[in-house]
Amino acid sequence: MNPPATPGMLQALPADHRHRLMRIARDVSFPMGVRLFEEGGRAGRFWIIRTGTVALDMRVPGRRAVVIENLGHNELVGWSWLFGPHTWHLGAEATSPVRAHEFDATAVRLMCEEDPALGASVARWVGDILAHRLRSARTRLLDLYAPYGSGSLM
């Protein structure tokens, strides 16, 4: 069973915070197969998907990268930009053509420092997404590597 999805930015942030962030967004697109970032690289930006899909993956020694989660419309791609040392914990690849809003991480962190209410809203939003992704990753890894899959607790 998959953990419940987290709300997108449109539902998670108060309207004034959402509008302030969207003022600094830049529209970008990626063709299928493009790597948005690699595990261990510098996390200097993040995206909210408008159309298309992005696979989050992680390296597994001796194997090819394992897809942890697939993201789509209105979902956040990247959370490592918010927490030091600002390096990616996973990799990401466009699995279809993607159109997205791109945000400069430094600019957003500065906005959050200047406005503690905005910072708290962003931290709650990203924290909820991070918790969801950790549950998803655990389930996916158990399905792949545990002798009996993720199973269910009795």
UniProtKB/TrEMBL annotation:
Lineage: superkingdom: Bacteria
Record-linked Gene3D superfamilies: Jelly Rolls
Residues covered by the Cyclic nucleotide-binding domain: 9-78
Pfam families per the UniProt record, alphabetical: cNMP_binding
Name this protein carries in UniProt: Cyclic nucleotide-binding domain-containing protein
Organism: Streptomyces acidicola
